[in-house]
Amino acid sequence: MSVLVHIIQLSFYNGFVTRKKTWLKALGISTIIMLITYLNFFILPYEWNSLVEPYLRAEYDIVIDIGHHFPKLVYVDPSLTQEVYVEMLLSNLTEAGMEITDYVELSEYYLREYGINFIILSNISKLNLTEYNNVVSGDYPDYDEVLIWSMVLSREGITIDRDILKLADGKEFSYSGIYMGQRGDIVLDRGLFETFINETGGDVNLYRSLGYSLLLYIKTDGDVDLNLVINTIFNLVENLNRTGVIRFHESMTRDTLVRSIEYSVVTRSDHVEMYSEYYASEYLNPLSPFMVYSVGGLIVFITYLLKLSIDVVREDMDIVALLYSIGGGDKHIGSYMFFTVSLFVIPPILVAFFGSILWIRAIYGIFLPYTLIFEWLAPYIFIPLVAVLVGSSVLSVLYVRRVGLAHILSLEF
Amino acid sequence: MEVVLEGVSRRFVLKNRAVVALRDVSLRFPSGGVSIVFGPSGSGKSVMLNLIAGLDRPDEGSISIGGNVITAMSWPELNMFRRRHISYCMQRNVLIPRLKVGLNIALPLLIRGVDRGEALEKARDLAEALGIGYTFDRAAYTLSGGEQRRAVLARSLTYRADLLLLDEPTSNLDEETAERVRDVIMDYYREYGPTLIVATHDPGFMDMGDYRVRLVEGRVVEQG
């Protein structure tokens, strides 16, 4: 441990104290690179912006995520379609005293059989969302009929090309546009959707019933009373169960249903946080613009830091040679470079990271949830750090082995 | 530890020009003796010490120290061997600029796991003996050339080595200081009895050697 302490001390002088100018340069460039990388979070259209933010801007007060309790119910009567259910719910809420002035439905249909997910946007025209024209391409003045294909097909034989959806038997469906979200979604109209489902052996009526996930955005004139909404939904579900339209899943207790409903009814601010996290976790498509841009930025960042660390290795070669000459081994040299480069790159990364978060908050007024920061943005710290620190340590040892200390010692003879 | 060089050659390419630093050198430095390597600048003295220290590899030939063929050792084996047996005062005054002189001198002991206090005490004794005790708590970059030279030398004398290699230990020193340095080196030699090889221009060392080697353009032209 004692040796390590001294190595760290040594590294501190050479990685930090004697390189103030380079350190400041690293800080500046790291900050710029990171800020540019983060710009995509706001400049490129993505689902969080397109699906959530418009509703928030339209000042809807309450969001009911019915999908959270749907899986816990078994639908006995197929006449209970989404439209019927929503109508019942709104009616019950009104009777319970909520003054509803507007609402929007957004539902996701998971076709588990095919590994397909559709999002059906209905009643969108009620919102004055001009931003949506930037998001959905194609000629869809009336968004009531828009379907968004939002997951990659997993069923064998179904392929999706840039403009064409192909079935195993060769039948093709050309679709109308690409949804410019982060998952490379495409836009289908309802007619095409129904044809596709029929062609693939599905039953359209199934998808016209209750969706797996249904978001209901409600605007009220009065105060928002979450308990009122929760109780109303619970009473509605219990009533449907009593009348045999649905039944509770055998694993569901009254408590789990209540908890599910409580979790499903949120205020606007809760919804922002919930969805920002949810969609952040969805950015796994390596070919999406978001990932290409982010990973590209990350690669540039790591490359830059590696170059810095290689410069440090090169500059410190006489010290590396010295350490070998006085009895140091690879572990000492590796540790020295590790800590030297640590002290050299960690401060710029941390400052750039937290600086950019503050920047996001200051410029856009958005406070990113902590979970989002640590789950999604943290790789911007950890990946470069690990790559650079390990890389520089290994590189320095390999460099010495390959080049030889005689060359490093300036070939004095 | 006897040091034996057999047919050692070392070539470099400098600015697209091939330079032969050592040509087919065969030597036998006696165990426990004082050997002096001398010759004009560029004759290959430092290259020879670098090779014996295991910091460089010959293009041809072999080197053995105390019967251990270091030219056949792997890199980690060589590192370990160097740590156990060799102390080397390089020609360049390489110190860690921002580190205090005392810590610079104590580094070899710290790397060997010696307690910090004990290491600094030993370093202080050596610094005092070499006349640079007053620089002990100063950063190394503040030292003059002569002070740096002595600090580098002190660093190589901090621990007991079986083989002590000194490359121009008295360069940049006035005669009085050089004599003091020679005394400290010989005190070390008398106390620990290592095989001592000194590459030098300093005539003050000539009388001390049991064995002398003269190099010219990488060849041994005189020995004995």
Task: Name the descriptors.
heterodimer, A: 2 domains, three-stranded antiparallel beta sheet, 13 strands, 14% strand, B: 224 residues, alpha/beta, Rossmann fold, six-stranded mixed beta sheet, four-stranded antiparallel beta sheet, globular
Structure, briefly:
Chain A is α+β, with helices and mostly antiparallel strands and 413 residues long. Chain A has helices at residues 2-15, 20-43, 47-57, 82-95, 132-135, 190-199, 204-208, 226-242, 254-264, 268-280, 289-315, 317-325, 330-364, 370-377, 379-403, 405-408; strands at residues 62-65, 73-75, 100-111, 116-122, 146-149, 159-160, 164-166, 172-174, 177-178, 186-189, 213-220, 246-248, 265-267.
Explain how this protein is built.
The complex is a heterodimer of chains A (413) and B (224). With 413 residues, chain A is of the alpha+beta class. Chain A folds into two domains: 2-46 and 286-408, no CATH class; 47-280, no CATH class. Chain A has helices at residues 2-15, 20-43, 47-57, 82-95, 132-135, 190-199, 204-208, 226-242, 254-264, 268-280, 289-315, 317-325, 330-364, 370-377, 379-403, 405-408; strands at residues 62-65, 73-75, 100-111, 116-122, 146-149, 159-160, 164-166, 172-174, 177-178, 186-189, 213-220, 246-248, 265-267. In chain A, helix 2 crosses helix 13 (330-364), helix 11 (289-315) crosses helix 13 and helix 11 runs parallel beside helix 15. The longest helix of chain A is centred in the C-terminal third of the chain and has 35 residues, at 330-364. Mean pLDDT of chain A is 64; it is low at 42-51, 110-146, 148-155, 177-185 and 278-288. Chain B has helices at 45-52, 75-85, 101-111, 116-129, 145-156, 175-192, 203-206; strands spanning 3-14, 17-29, 34-38, 60-65, 68-69, 86-89, 163-167, 195-199, 211-216, 219-223. Chain B has a single domain (3-223), classed as Rossmann fold. Chain B has 224 residues and is an alpha/beta fold. Chain B has seven helices and ten strands. Classes of the chains: A alpha+beta (413), B alpha/beta (224). Chain A binds chain B through residues 2-3, 6, 9-10, 13-14, 17-18, 318-319, 321-330, 332, 401, 404-407, 409-413, and chain B through 10, 12, 14, 21, 42-47, 50, 53, 55-57, 75-76, 79-80, 82-83, 86-88, 90-92, 94, 96-99, 103, 107-108, 110-113, 115-116, 155-156.
